[in-house]
Design goal:
Blueprint: H1 2-34, E1 41-43, E2 48-59, E3 62-68, E4 70-77, E5 80-84, H2 89-100, E6 107-111, H3 117-120, H4 124-127, E7 132-136, H5 137-145, E8 156-158, E9 161-166, E10 169-175, E11 185-189, E12 194-197, H6 220-237, E13 241-244, E14 249-251, E15 257-259, E16 263-265, H7 267-288, H8 296-299, H9 313-328
Parallel strand pairs: 5-6, 6-7, 7-8, 12-13
Antiparallel strand pairs: 1-2, 2-3, 3-4, 4-5, 9-10, 10-11, 11-12, 13-16, 14-15
Length: about 325
């Protein structure tokens, strides 16, 4: 019996030491990665880049608020402020402080890009000063069915299109069906000639691997249609810029990483649509051959995807498996 306990003790100590070594290694990676650039750090534990909190100008009166890896859009007018995606309570407080340094106007509206709690939490800060929350109607249903303490229900909902007019400026909201979440919207600042679209495209390029290989709450069957609809809007209204909801990291000519600006041209939107078209077509073709789901990613020719920004073969194969599984349910 003593030998058994000794073995268990030894195994436990070995396991704890391994955990400690892993933690030290992760901290070392994070510290080392932080030297790559002064404007952001790489967190090895979460496998993502995070930038310091700050405000970035997009156009006259239009800005992004940067928090960690996220970006939210806000618009300052002579009659008040429109805020999007408060993110969380701490981020919302920081955003409110930043706005207070730029204007004494109150926040009149908070717009949810979609209902996921990592984007929609924290609106209470603005609600307390009288702001109204706006969201697509399916977001209201989601929030009601799966409540989260920090996510407030919207005061104003709409189906396909809604315009917020404030201080001589407008933020137009469009819904083109399910995509990332079943209620993701595209926002258009007419005076800035800029769109704001979260998660489906990351300017300055759209030819990039999705951050989450598991594609949580993605409606793959409608993403190409959604992006085409946004392209049609941009072409019809001659819109110049698109702003993403997450930071992007680039490489300069010396191979040093740097934080990309918050917006890019409509080329990024087209590249995103072309990426999804190719993924969907290749997965469909392989599954239709009768290939088992577990073998789809290995049988597919991944060469066309190797040029993707953030390309990681292991993660990309997981992503392909996710899309293939979705396809077998019928899209």
């Amino acid at each position: 019996m003593a030998n058994i306990y000794s073995s268990r003790y030894f195994a436990t100590v070995t396991f704890l030491l391994a955990l400690l070594a892993g933690a030290v290694s992760a901290q070392a990676q994070e510290s080392e990665s932080a030297k790559d650039g002064e404007d952001f750090v790489f967190e090895a534990s979460s496998n993502e880049f995070r930038a310091p909190t700050g405000v970035e100008p997009v156009a006259d009166g239009l800005y992004t608020f940067r928090w960690g890896a996220a970006r939210s859009l806000f618009m300052i007018t002579d009659d008040g402020v429109i805020v999007t995606d408060p993110l969380n309570l701490k981020a919302a407080r920081s955003l409110r402080d930043a706005i207070s340094k730029m204007t004494d106007q109150p926040v009149k509206y908070v717009v949810y890009s979609h209902s996921h709690k990592d984007r929609a939490a924290g609106a209470q800060i603005f609600k307390d000063e009288g702001a109204q929350i706006v969201a697509q109607e399916k977001c209201a249903d989601n929030i009601k069915e799966t409540p989260y303490p920090g996510v407030l229900p919207p005061d104003i909902t709409f189906s396909d299109h809604y315009t917020i007019e404030l201080g001589g400026r407008a933020l137009e909201l469009f819904y083109f069906g399910p995509s990332h979440d079943n209620c993701l919207i595209t926002m258009w600042s007419r005076h800035a000639s800029a769109l704001y679209l979260v998660s489906l495209v990351q300017p300055p390029t759209g030819w990039s691997q999705p951050w989450d290989p598991m594609g949580a709450d993605f409606y793959f069957n409608n993403i190409v249609h959604y992006l085409k609809s946004v392209e049609d809007l941009a072409q019809r209204e001659e819109i110049d810029w698109i702003v993403g909801g997450w930071i992007s990291v680039g490489l300069d000519e010396n191979g040093k990483k740097f934080l990309q600006p918050p917006h890019g041209t409509m080329t990024a939107l087209t590249e995103a649509r072309e990426f999804w078209e190719l993924v969907m077509a290749e997965v469909k073709a392989e599954v239709d051959k009768g290939t088992f789901l577990t073998q789809v990613a290995d049988r597919m020719d991944l060469t066309p995807f190797e040029s993707l920004s953030r390309y990681n073969e292991e993660h990309f194969k997981l992503f392909i498996r996710r899309v293939a599984t979705y396809y077998t349910t019928g899209w």
